[in-house]
Design brief:
- By secondary structure, this protein is of the alpha/beta class.
- Helices cover 38% and strands 24% of the residues.
- The chain has one domain: Glutaredoxin (3-Layer(aba) Sandwich).
- The chain contains four helices and five strands.
- It has a five-stranded mixed sheet.
Length: 115
Amino acid sequence: MSNLIEITDADFQQVVLDSALPVLVDLWAAWCGPCHMVTPVVEQLADEYAGRLKAGKLDVDSNPTTPGQYGVQGIPTVILFKGGEEVARLVGARPKAQFVSMIEPHLAEAAERGG
C-alpha cells in the first residue's frame, strides 16, 4: 500500500508547509511522460521513509497556484520542504539514488535534533 498523498492548492499550507515532517512534493501532470517515470520512485520513497517523511503528488493542471508560487517552469519537478521552506529541488526524471541523496541529509538533521 502506498503512503503517497494527493496534495492540492487548497490544502498545500496544511499538508506541506505546516507539516512537522519533511514533505517531498512531486509536481506532475497526466500528459507528462517523464512524470509517469518519477511516480513509482516517489511512491517507493513514501513507503520507505514512512514516519520520517511525507510524500505527495500535486497535479499542476488542476492546481496552478502552487507551481506558480514556487517558480516551477518544467515538470516533473520534485521539491523537498522542511519547516515550511523549500530545502531541495530536482527537475526531470532522475534515478532513485538522486532523490535519496536529496532527502537523506534533511532526515539526518531532524534525527540529530530529536525531531
